[in-house]
Amino acid sequence: MSTDVRVEPAPRRTAPAAPDGTLVTLRRGLALSPELRAGLSGTLALALASTLGKVAVPIAVQQGLDHGIRATGGPNLGYVATVGALTVVLLVLAVGSAYLMNYRLYRSTETALSGLRIRTFGHVHALSVLHQQDERRGALVSRVTSDIDQISRFLQFSGVSLVVNAGQVVVATVVMVVYSWPLTVAVLAVFVPLALVMPRLQRWQQTAYRAVRERVGVLYAAVAESVVGAPVIRAYGVSGRTAGRLSDAIERYRSAQYGAQRSSVVMSALSEGASGLTNTLVVVGGVVLGAGLAHELGAGFSVGELTAFVFLAGLFVQPIQMFTETLTEAQNAVAGWRRVLDILDAEPEVVDPGEQASPLPAGPLAVRFADVGYAYPGGGAEALSDVAVTIAPGTAVAVVGETGSGKTTFAKLLTRLMDPTRGRVLLSGTPLSRVGFAELRRRVVMVPQDGFLFDSTVGRNAAFVRPDLSDAELTAAFAELGLADWLAGLPAGLDTPVGERGEHLSVGERQLVALVRAYVADPDLLILDEATSAVDPATEVRLQRALDAVTRGRTTVTIAHRLSTAEAADEVLVFDGGRIVQRGPHEQLVAVTDSVYERLHASWLEQTR
Amino acid sequence: MGVAVSGYSTGYDRGVVLRGLKLLGRSIRDEPATFAIGALGSVLFAVMTVASAYVIGAVVGDVAVPAIEAGRVPAGALALGGAAILGVSVLKIVGILGRRLGAGAMQYRLQARYRRAVTQRYLDLPMSWHQRHPTGALLSNANNDVESAFMPIAPFPFAVGTVTMLVTAIVALLVTDWVLALVGVAVFPTVFVINVVYSRRSAPLQAAAQRLRGEVAAVAHESFDGALVVKTAGREAAETARFAVVSDQLRDASIAAGRVRGLFDPLMDALPNVGTLAVLVVGSVRLAAGDLTVPQLVSAAFLFSVLAFPVRAIGWVLGDLPRAVAGADRVDGVLAAEGGMAHGAAELPGTGAVELTFDRVRFGYGDGADVLTDVSFTVPAGRTVALVGATGSGKSTLTQLAARLVDPTDGTVRLAGRDVRELSAAALASTVALVPQVPFVFDDTVHGNVALERTGVGADDAAAALRLAQADRFVAALPDGADTAVGERGASLSGGQRQRVTLARGLAGRPRLLILDDATSAVDPRVEQAILAGLRTTGTDTTVLVVAYRRATIALADEVVYLADGRVAARGTHRELLATVPGYAELVTAYEAADADADDEVEVAG
Q: Which residues span the membrane (chain B) (predicted)?
C-alpha cells in the first residue's frame, strides 16, 4: 500500500456532459419506474374524493346556519340533523378514500422504488472496477439507500400532498367563488404575495439545512476521531486539544440547528399572519358585502355563507405551509434521481459478447498479449505499453516490478476487468472480448490480495463460486489442499462465522479460504495476487502448501511479492514503467548485472538477510 | 444505528412513561430559561387559539348578524371586530415565536450539553474502558443516543401549552353551554386516544422498516466492498438476487408502516370536523330551546377546527418517549462509568534516555486468560531492544503497558526506576512516545499532526522530525507543504505516508523512550533502514523499544526479547537467538521475504 499518488479516473459516460435540467430529470426519473403509473388514475380519483369531504363541512355549516337554524319561520331542526348526518357519511367516505389512496400510494411507490434499487444495485456490479474503487464505495451505497429514500419521501408525502393540496385549493376556491367572488379575490390577494415569497424563503431554509448537514458531518468526524484515536490522544497527552475541537464542532452544529429552526419559524409566523389577515378581511368584507353593498354587486351574503367562508379560507393555510417543504423535498428527490440516473447512464465498459461468444478449448489455457496498451480514462500516459507476450498452457509465470510498474494493470486486463485501449488479449487463440462471461468467470479465476470474505461462514465463503457444493465436498477440498487440520481446529468447522469482512480470521487465514474458493472453481487459468502482509509461521506453511496444490496443472500467473515465488516460477516477467523490460527464468535474469530484476533481487536479499 | 432504534420496541409500559416524565423534568432543570420561553409562548398561543374562535364567533354573531339583518354597516363595531381578530392573530404569532424558538433553543442546548459531557467522559475514561466497548456503540452514544434522548423536547413546550389549551377550551365550552362541553369531552380525548393507539401500532412497524433499511445498506456495503471478488467470480446476478430479498423485505415493511399511517392521518383530519358537525346539530337544538346564541354556536364550531392540530403535540411527545428513555439510559451509562486513570504527581528530572523496566508484569483483558505472564526485562537507557514474537504473543500489549495506556494486573512498569503510576500525566507524555501499528492521523495539517500543539514542540522540531522520518520529501511536494490539510484520517495520504507522519509525531517531542509497534510496516524497506539508521546516527538520545518483523530491522537492535505465549521465552542478540532458539529461528525465517511493497487497487504509472 505504498502508492503515493491517487488518481480517480473520470467515469466514461455516454450521456452528454451537461447535467439534465430539473424537468428532464423528473420526467426521466418517473419514466424509470412504470410501476408508478399503474392505477394512478384510481389513486387520483380517490384523492379528489377525499378533498371533497373537507369542503363538505363548510358547506354543511352554511346550510345548517342559513336554512336550518336561521330558517325563515323558526329553526328547522330536522334539516340540520339531515345535513349533519349526510356530511358525516361524506366524511366517512372521505376518510375511506384517503386511506385507500394512501395505501395504494405506499404500495406503488415502495414497489417501484424497490425495483429501482435492485436495478441500480445490479448495474453497479455490471460497471467496471474503475467505478467500484474504494473512494466511491460509500457513494455507491448511497445510490441504493439514501438517494432512493429521498425519492420515496417526495413521492409519498410531498408529491401527493402537492396534488391533493392543489386540489384542495382549487375546490375551495370554486366554492368560495360560488359564495362570493369579491371576497374570493380578497383572500387570493393575501395568499398570492405569500406564495410569491415562498421560493425565496425555501432557498433560505435550504441553505440553513445544508449547513446543518455539513456540520453534523464535521461533528461525527470529530467524535469518531476522539474515539478511534483514543490511544494516540492519551499517549501524547493531548486530551485538552481534542476536547477543544469537539466543543467547537458541537457548538457549530448547535448554532446551525438553531439557524435552521429560525428559518422554519419565520415560515409558520408568516402563514399565521396570512391566516389572521384573511379572517379579518373575510369578516369585515363579508359584513360590508352582506349589509351594505349586496344590492350594488347583485349578490346577497348570508351569515352562513360568511361563516363557511372563514372555514374555507382556513383550507388555504395548510397547503401554503406545506409548500416550502414540498419544494425542498422535490429538489432533493430530483437530486436523488439525477445521481441514480448517473449510475444507470454509465454504460458498462466491459460487456458480455452474448450471442457472438466463441467457446474456449478445454484444458489449461494459453495467454497471448498482442501489442497491448492501456491508459486509464481521463487522459494521461499509458499505464501499460507495448506488451507482447505469450504464456504456454500449464506454465507458472511470476510477474514482478515496483509499485506502479503496471503489473496489476496486466492482471486486470488478463481477467478482463478492463479492456485494453490498444492491442488484443487472447486466450488459446480466442480474443478475450469474445469469451462469454459465464465461461470466462468459470475458466479464469483471480485470487485478489485481500481475499475478501463475506459476513457468513467459512464454508459458504469457500463455496462462493459454487454454492451447490455440499459440506462433504467442501471438507474434501480443504483436505486436498492440506487444510484438514486447520478446518478441524476451527470452533465450528465449516460453519464457523467469519465476521464482517472476515475479521474473525487472521489475514493469512482469509487467504486460505480465498484459495479454497479458487480451488473449488477449478479454473484453467489462475491469477494470484500474493498477499504482502506478514502472517504467523504456521499459517505461512499452510498457505505455501495450499498454493502448491491449487496451482498444480494449471496456467498460473502470480503477481509476486516474494523472492521464493519468482525463483520457483517457470518464467519471470519484469515490469518497469508500464513495459516488460525483462523475461526469462530467475537464474537467467539475476545474472544480468545492473538490470531491474537484479536490483529488485538485491533489495529482497537485503530485507531478508 | 441499530442500538438507537431498538428503543422503539420498549413500548408503552408505565415505567417508561414515568421515566420519560422524569427525563423531561431533568431537562427543565437543566434548561429552565429556554423552557420558560417555550412554555410561555405556547400558553400564549394556546389561549389565543381559543380566543380566536371566540372573537370570530362574537364578531360574526354580534356584529355581522345584526348588520346583515338590518342591511346597515356599523363602521365602529366592525372596525373594532376586525382589529380584535387581527390583534389575536398578532399575539398568536408572538406565541409561535416564543414556543418554537424556545423549544429549539432548549433542545439543541441540551443536546450540545450532553454531547460535551459524553465526549469529555470518553477522553477521561481509561483505555481499559475503551477496549471493553465497541467503537460503534461509543459513536452511537455520542451521536444518535444524545439526539434521541432530547427528541421529545421539540414538541414538549407545545404539549404543555396544549394541555392549557384543552383545559381553557373545556372551561370555555362549559361556560357557554354544558351540552356542547360534553361534545368537547367526547372529541378531544378521542383524538388523544387515537394518537396513543397509533403510536403503539406504528412504532414496531417503523422500527422494523428502520432495521431493514440498515440491512439494505449493510448488504450493499458488503457487496460493493467485495465487488472485485463478485466480479471475478461471475456472481453479479447472485449478489443482486441476495440484495433483492432484503430490498423487497424493506418494501413490504414500509408498506405495512405506511398503511397504518395512511389510516391515521385522514382520521385525525376528520375528527375535528365531526366535532364541528356535532356542535351544529346539538347547538341547533339548544338554540331552538333558547339556551344558546348564534355567536356562541359559531365560536364552538370554530373551536374544534383550531384545536385538533395542537392536541397531536401530546401524541408526539409520548410517541418519542420510549426512544428518548432508551437513549438517555445509554447516555447516562457513559456519564456514570467509573474509572479514570489516576496519575501521580512525580516528574522525571533530567534529560536524555531513560531506562525501561518490566518487573514481573502480568496482564489480562477482562475475564479472559492472561495475555502476559511474569514478564521481566530491562531496556537500558539509550539502548535499542527489539520485541519479536508470533501474532498474539502479547507484543502490542507490552508497548501499551510501557506507554501506560493500560496498567498491569500484577507487577510494575518502571521508567528510570520510578513506577509509571507515580508519574504525572504531563511527565509521562513528555517522556514516552508510542508509535502504534496502525497509524492514526487527525483531520488537520501535516504540521498540526506532528506538533499536536504540544508545548516545547515548535515548527523547527516538527520539520526536523519529518526529516528524520524520511517524510520531508513527500511533504515538500504537497500543495501547501507541511501546511497541507490531510483530510479525515489522513485520507489524502498513502499508508506509508501516514506511517511516516505518525513516526515524525513520535520523534518531534524528543522522547526519552521511543516505542515503535511495528510502526514502519507500510514503509518501503529501504526507507525504513534510512529511518532507523538516522535514529542511531543523529545522536538522538533515546531508548528504543521496537516491535519488528523484518530481519533487517531486528538486526539493528542491541538485544532481542523473544516473546512466546505471553512470556519472555529467550533474550539475547539476534545471532545468538538464531543459533540457539529453534522457535525464534523458525519464526524469523518464515517472515523472510514476506514483505514487499504492494500494488494498490488502481495503480498509476510513473
A: 33-56, 76-97, 149-172, 178-198, 295-318
